């Protein structure tokens, strides 16, 4: 897969993960202006007619900047907006579409029809092969520790199995919250680090202040892995589960047949709104700051880690 030329001009090899509720035009614009790929889920635009407005706003406010943006589509059958949203993305010729929870050849073909590219998120090698067979151009390896819907596998295991046969663009997700980890993702064979949780604790994020502060105050021990809230396993902040009146250490399994993304069918508490998603890397986040400041911090850490690695290997 050859990505659009704008992907060659990124300040850092980072794709900002699309986050339910949290990712809105303000966050995406700040990410793109900071030199990384910004993204948001199409379902965040409510009502559906707002999606066109959002894409117009993002395009206008990022004009002249090198980094592109991406839109996430949930392709699971529960998404009754898929066809409508896909048509809106086509009108705007969105350069990168991130697909989740299923791989549909017709969706991939539609994106290719307007010259766009598709990256599909996967939690294991079997799903990775299926995604590529069905026309995905690139993959997002969602390893253990990632925020939201995370896989159970070590990033080392997941990356080496996928890279054994796939030489296309590959992003790695899973507790990446500092510049050193971005470099580590590249060392494992990733082209991009896929980062979500650190951007929740930014001023531009559409998240409650208590949510942002919980990211700052928390660490890996504060993350609970559960399928209860959407029917698919994901990582959530322990404090938000307790606040909903639930015991985070004794959660029942969710009903996958009742998979939902916030309507509250599995529990009265709604995923993402009441039950806050978070990755295990939050121990690296010490304050709420702007996206520009966070990306600058990542870059400084990334450069320093590269110098340190070269020194250790005798290449400096």
Descriptive notes:
- The protein has a domain at 5-206: Alpha-Beta Barrel (TIM Barrel), CATH 3.20.20.70.
- 33% of the residues lie in helices and 14% in strands.
- The chain has helices spanning 25-33, 50-61, 82-92, 105-113, 125-133, 155-163, 179-187, 209-217, 238-243, 291-312, and strands at 14-16, 38-41, 69-74, 96-100, 117-122, 138-142, 170-173, 192-195, 223-226, 234-237.
- Strands 1-8-7-6-5-4-3-2 form an 8-stranded parallel sheet. The protein has a two-stranded antiparallel sheet with strand order 9-10.
- The protein starts with 13 loop residues before the first strand and ends with a helix.
List keywords for this structure.
316 residues, alpha/beta, TIM Barrel, eight-stranded parallel beta sheet, two-stranded antiparallel ribbon
Topology of this protein?
Elements: E1 14-16, H1 25-33, E2 38-41, H2 50-61, E3 69-74, H3 82-92, E4 96-100, H4 105-113, E5 117-122, H5 125-133, E6 138-142, H6 155-163, E7 170-173, H7 179-187, E8 192-195, H8 209-217, E9 223-226, E10 234-237, H9 238-243, H10 291-312
Parallel strand pairs: 1-8, 2-3, 3-4, 4-5, 5-6, 6-7, 7-8
Antiparallel strand pairs: 9-10
Distance linking N and C termini: 32 Å
pLDDT average, as an integer? 93
CATH architecture type of the domain at 5-206: Alpha-Beta Barrel
What's the CATH superfamily of the domain at 5-206, by name? Aldolase class I
Helical content stands at 25-40%
CATH topology of the domain at 5-206: TIM Barrel
The level 1 CATH classification of the domain at 5-206 is Alpha Beta
Strand content: 5-15%
């Amino acid at each position: 897969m050859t990505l659009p030329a704008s992907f060659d001009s990124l300040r850092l090899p980072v794709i900002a993960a699309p986050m339910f509720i949290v990712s809105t035009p303000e966050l995406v614009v700040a990410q793109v202006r900071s030199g990384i790929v910004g993204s948001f889920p199409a379902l965040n635009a409510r009502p559906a007619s707002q999606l066109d407005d959002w894409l117009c706003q993002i395009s206008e406010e990022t004009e002249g900047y090198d980094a592109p943006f991406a839109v996430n589509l949930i392709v699971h059958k529960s998404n009754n907006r898929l066809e409508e949203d896909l048509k809106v993305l086509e009108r705007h010729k969105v350069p990168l579409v991130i697909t989740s929870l299923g791989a549909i050849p017709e969706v991939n073909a539609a994106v290719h029809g307007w010259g766009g590219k598709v990256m599909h998120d996967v939690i294991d090698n079997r799903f990775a092969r299926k995604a590529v067979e069905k026309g995905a151009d690139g993959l997002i390896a969602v390893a253990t520790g990632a925020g939201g819907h995370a896989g159970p596998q070590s990033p080392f295991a997941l990356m080496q199995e996928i890279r054994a046969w796939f030489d296309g663009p590959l992003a790695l997700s899973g507790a990446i919250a500092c510049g050193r980890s971005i470099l580590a993702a590249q060392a494992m064979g990733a082209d991009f680090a896929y980062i979500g949780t650190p951007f929740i604790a930014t001023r531009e994020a559409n998240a409650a202040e208590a949510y942002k502060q919980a990211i700052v105050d928390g660490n890996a021990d504060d993350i609970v892995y559960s399928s209860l809230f959407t029917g698919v396993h994901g990582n959530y902040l322990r404090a938000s589960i307790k606040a909903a009146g639930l015991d985070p250490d004794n959660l029942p399994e969710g009903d996958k047949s009742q998979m939902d993304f916030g309507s509250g069918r599995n529990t009265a508490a709604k995923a993402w709104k009441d039950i806050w998603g978070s990755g295990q890397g939050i121990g690296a986040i010490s304050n709420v700051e702007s996206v520009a400041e966070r990306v600058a911090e990542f870059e400084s850490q990334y450069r320093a880690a590269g110098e340190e690695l070269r020194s250790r290997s005798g290449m400096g």
